[in-house]
Design goal:
The protein is an alpha+beta fold. It is 31% helix and 24% strand. It has helices at 5-14, 40-52, 54-65, 81-97, 160-176, 197-205, 275-286, 322-329, 339-350, 401-418, 441-452, 497-515; strands at 100-103, 107-112, 118-124, 150-152, 183-189, 211-214, 217-218, 222-225, 227-236, 249-256, 261-262, 265-271, 292-298, 301-307, 311-312, 366-367, 371-372, 374-383, 386-395, 423-429, 433-434, 460-462, 474-476, 479-480, 494-496. The two termini are 34 Å apart.
């Protein structure tokens, strides 16, 4: 996440994209890189960076996260006061650190050095929506005390931590006066989480660097990204007398926050519930791992609140999907197809609690390198004409858009034949992305192996999508370690201090090697 390259990119980011690892990072079978130690100059610069700027990098991160750079759907980034203030702070930092700065509206470029050959560092300054009630402190204050060793804030991992470390990696190289032959440019895009079109337009007239690293995914390097997609349907409103008076029914169902987040909240109202039915629902919910439920009787109605665990939707295995689990807890019977009852039946019959679409007709598939397609309901939206159910897809190579779309529509048609007619059916997806031949891969593998001690690292595929797709010879390099839970997009986003400082060392060494 081909009609055209541009269309695929826009579709991929519309459901958001994003930047996070897939369920298990897997080595690239075609990569033959052999790890070797980076140069003495690169290692010396990396050690200097972490010794000299270990406090400053945290201070800068604290200032970066203080700006609420969530996209406002009514105000473009280049006119958004928070985005403008964020960019003004970046300019002040660039001036203080001795770099040049160019503001192109949606994109800012912080540069160091001269030369026709350039090395790019691709990041983004916007962040995903956040629910402040779920945080111990404000998500726009860098919390260094609630969980010792962790730096908690919206953007700490995705993607303001990488911006801070890139700035000080560049500063360390400048201080050390390394004889670099290439210019280094840090790109900070302000719409990665919401709208890729301004970056596409910018790159039509702006010549990007010949080689770039994107700091928006995981190590050791990302050379393939699944395509993002959406299946959205509306369960139409039903007449008030569609169900006989007094019969148990689902009167309400809601859940989710935004499309690229595994939802941790969902709720339902079961009308005319009997004591026996209530006991069955409670017993089924109690068997689920990772879920917490609260139940409240109001007259003949049972109000159910479900709490799971949020995660990036490209890594559904890192979360506990409250929407899917609540529907499953209610699967003690087939419900009348009221609007909310139809939602529960639809979820249970076509999605279930699995992650890979096995129940959704014939859509499930996997790629030997990129892994399986993941299928996760993420948002239940109340509409005037019914309830919309949005399912987030992350699909690997192996099927065409046409084939997958036809398979989805076939499954929907079969379900409608057994149940009720759906409205506002939307099926969209982009193309997976693969870049196996980026020339900087040996350098990335060498630096990663040297600083982590992990032998013979190989590039990986992820479930998210990054702006690497738009830059020539760009691949992602961090900030997350392989095998670790990625916290971007969750309501518990953080980066550990240890990881932040390790990233600072690796970014310094990589830039020293690529720009020498």
């Amino acid at each position: 996440m081909k009609r055209t390259i541009l269309a695929s990119l826009l579709l991929a980011c519309a459901a958001h994209s994003l930047a996070a690892p897939q369920e298990t990072a897997q080595p690239h079978p075609d990569n033959k890189t052999t790890a070797a130690a980076p140069s003495d100059a690169a290692v010396k610069a990396a050690k200097y960076a972490v010794t000299t700027y270990r406090t400053a990098v945290v201070d800068t991160l604290g200032k970066l996260v203080s700006y609420n750079t969530v996209a406002d759907p009514n105000v473009p980034s280049d006119r958004d006061p928070q985005h403008i203030a964020f960019k003004a702070y970046l300019k002040s930092e660039a001036d203080r650190l001795g770099f040049d700065f160019a503001d192109h509206g949606w994109v800012v470029v912080v540069g160091m050095g001269q030369g026709t050959e350039r090395v790019g560092v691709v990041t983004h300054g916007d962040v995903q929506p956040v629910d402040p009630k779920k945080w111990k402190k404000s998500p726009f204050v860098l919390d260094q005390t609630s969980e010792p060793g962790k730096l908690l804030a919206r953007g700490a991992e995705d993607d303001k931590g990488p911006i801070a470390t890139a700035l000080y990696a560049m500063k360390a190289l400048k201080d050390q006066q390394l004889p670099l032959s290439k210019r280094i440019e840090l790109y900070v895009y302000m719409g990665e989480e919401s709208n890729w079109q301004p970056l596409v337009d910018f790159l039509k007239t702006h010549e990007p660097p010949q080689v770039s690293i994107t700091l928006d995914a995981e190590y050791p390097a990302v050379v393939a990204e699944k395509a993002s997609g959406t299946i959205a349907v509306t369960i139409p409103k039903t007449a008030p007398d569609a169900v006989p008076a007094g019969e148990p029914q689902i009167a309400a169902f809601a859940g989710g926050f935004f499309g690229s987040q595994i939802p941790e909240d969902a709720s339902a109202v079961v009308a005319n519930v009997t004591p026996a039915l209530e006991a069955q629902i409670k017993a089924r919910g109690a068997k689920q791992e990772g879920m917490r439920y609260t139940f409240e009787r109001k007259g003949n109605d049972l109000h159910v609140t479900a709490h799971g665990l949020s995660a990036h939707s490209s890594k559904p295995e890192d979360g506990v999907n409250a929407i899917a689990m609540l529907a499953d807890a209610l699967a003690v019977r087939t419900w009348p197809n009221t609007t909310a009852g139809g939602v529960v039946n639809y979820l249970n019959e076509l999605v279930g609690t699995g992650l890979y679409g096995e129940k959704f007709g014939a859509i499930a598939y996997r790629d030997s390198f990129m892994g399986p397609m993941t299928v996760a309901p993420t948002v239940i939206k109340q509409r005037e004409d019914g309830i919309e159910v949005s399912i987030n897809l992350r699909r690997p190579q192996g099927k065409s858009i046409e084939q997958l779309t036809n398979e989805v529509n076939a499954a929907l048609a079969q379900w409608q034949g057994r149940n009720l007619e759906l409205a506002n059916i939307t099926v969209r997806t982009g193309e997976p992305w693969v870049r196996k031949d980026a020339p900087q891969l040996p350098v990335l593998m060498n630096v990663f192996s040297y600083f982590t001690g992990i032998k013979d690292p190989k590039p990986v595929a992820i479930g998210g999508g990054t702006n690497s797709r738009l830059f020539p010879n760009a691949v992602s390099f961090g900030p997350a370690m392989p095998g670790k839970v990625y916290t971007g997009h969750s309501e518990h986003e953080f980066i550990t201090l240890k990881q932040l400082l390790l990233n600072l060392q690796m970014y310094t060494a990589v830039l020293a090697e690529l720009a020498k």
